[in-house]
Amino acid sequence: MKVLLHDCCAPCGAHVAEELKKDGYDVTVYFYNPNIFPAEEYQLRLNEMKRYCEKNKIPLIVGNYNHDEWLSAVAGFENEKEGGARCEKCFMHRLGETAQKAMEEGFEYFATTLSVSPHKPVEVINRIGNELGEFYNVKFIDTVWRKNEGYKKACELSRKNDFHRQNYCGCEFSVN
Ligand code: SF4
Known about the structure:
The chain is of the alpha/beta class. It is 48% helix and 11% strand. The chain has six helices and five strands, in the order βαβαβααβαβα. Strands 3-2-1-4-5 form a five-stranded parallel β-sheet, sandwiched between helices. The protein is globular and about 40 Å long. The mean pLDDT is 96. Bound molecules: iron/sulfur cluster.
């Protein structure tokens, strides 16, 4: 059961990768996050995920970082509040790329860490994931990862691994 796991950051990625492995999946992490701003923060989050994957022998694929292209994908929605229409465009952009990659690389499944966060609308994430799964003919795992104290477990893993923990979602519009 090969799954391509879209990962947004190391704390969420470590939690979901461990849960999927417990369920018997063969996990490859896909770090595709052109939403992250600035580039220094992107590199910091990527480095933390690389460190975790190397330590735990999990294959990691790093996608392109093209923030201008991502800005075009959310154009017109910049001022929406977090969890609203801008985020929906952002999910479509990142999950669309992940589903396509999963199809091209022969994965049976794809998944995302996005539902770990208590600030994200899971019904929107899962609707988009399932629609993309049908389009690309790759099954989407629509587990709500923040359930069963998932967010708390991600925080604990973060402390245990001494991960960098950001205080904003990722884009410039979400900086507090
Ligand atoms: S707040 Fe987060 S999910 Fe929403 S658009 Fe920005 S980076 Fe994407």
